[in-house]
Amino acid sequence: MNVYFFKLCWKNIWRNRRRTFITVNAIGLGVMSLVFLRNYYDSFHDQLIQNVIKYHSGHLAISARKFEENNATHLFISDVGGIRRWLRDQVGVVAVSERVVFSGLASSARGSTTVGVMGVKPEEESQVTQFAKKIVSGTFFSEMKPRSIVLGSKVAATLGVELGSKIVLLTQGVDGSVGNELFFVTGVFDTNSDADRSLAFIQLEEGRDLISLPKDSVHQVAVVLKNDDLVGEIRRDFDDFFKQHSKIQMLSWKELQRPVVAMIELDRAVNRLLMFLILGVAALGIANSILMSIMERTREFGVMLAIGTARRDVVKMVVVETLLLTVVGVLVGNLLGILVTVFFNQVGFDLRWLTSKDFVVQGAIVQTVSYPVVRVMNSLVVSGVIMGLALVVSFFPARHAGSLTPMKALRSY
């Protein structure tokens, strides 16, 4: 094949401009849909994962074995100092938050409710989770006043409290004793998630005192990394370094949030099914265009064969014409797909017509407005699949054109 051959094939596909235009549009719309959908789904999943990381345990959580299964207060890390020093030496670790975690009864003059309580160091927790940025009233321990408590918005509403109100926390200590303390509301957060109706924050040392936890002991250490790709490496290093400590464990966010992972996998399966359907439509469009072209050009192929054109050259011509036609459609589709992605990246892809507000899966916020991001790999994958599909689809019509008998082909008109 030479340049002249490609020029001839290029001219051939534009001989019937109407059919070429329809085919290019069909391929282009299919590619545009696939590129945008893949960009959207990837961004949607990344956003969901970031919400899990930012409002829960970070990328990794260190705790006593079986603590994550039942949150039993007697399962704690007795000396967190060694873990703290080890984490400080890890290059990929961005932030760490030590936590005391327990449940209790919160009571005010107007009501009572059960809450999950986290005792934290405010400056550490602010680097690991986003609760400090979701404060709608008061502050997130900015003044470090003794016996301060920060509540979820729905907890505050249930208790009928506001800034400065008094709350009594009643809980059971790790030694079986009953712990109770008076706190003052200094902040209220609203994340539009389950945390709003069930979570309260107090300061770490006050949490230890309330449940009689030994000094320098915690229930959980939340760890945030530079990126999710480092999870496996950090876990392996942790297991190697602390292999003699059989009572502590490090779990990834995927192990802590299995329902979220299952939802993402299901979503990806649906995405693949949708992709196959769109590919099927594109394949039918390409096949229809090739078959129509061959039927219209049967006499032309007969003349070519009669004057000595090799059958393999006829096959090559049909295949190359199909690929050139597909290349045009792929380029148009990628351009449209990128433009649509950029547009929705600016204004947001809004699903509030399906559900009026954000919803929650296992405590993870699923936002109804997503901002897809252009990903070159998605365009390359879609383009490669479409080109491969076009090559396969073109083979059988091309083979038919190459196997024509000159005499029968010349009598076709």
**Envelope shape:** elongated
Strand order of the largest sheet: 2-3-8-5-7-6
Structural class: alpha+beta
Task: Kindly report how far apart the N and C termini lie.
Answer: 30 Å
In angstroms, what is the radius of gyration? 32 Å
Order of helices and strands: HHEHHEEHEEHEEHEHEHEHHHHEEEEHH
How many separate domains make up the residues?
Answer: 2
Q: Please, what is the average pLDDT?
A: 87
Could you give the count of β-strands? 14
Total of helices = 15
Main beta sheet, described?
Answer: 6 strands, mixed, barrel
How large is the share of residues in beta strands?
15-25%
The stretches of 5 or more residues where confidence is low (pLDDT under 50) are none
Relative helix content: 40-55%
Describe the 3D structure:
By secondary structure, the chain is an alpha+beta fold. The chain has 2 domains: 202 residues, no CATH class; 200 residues, no CATH class. It contains 15 helices and 14 strands. A 6-stranded mixed barrel has the order 2-3-8-5-7-6, surrounded by 4 helices. Strands 11-14 form a two-stranded antiparallel ribbon. It has a two-stranded antiparallel ribbon with strand order 12-13. A hairpin with a 2-residue loop joins β12 and β13. The radius of gyration is 32 Å and the shape is elongated. The relative contact order is 0.18. The model has no long low-confidence stretch (mean pLDDT 87).
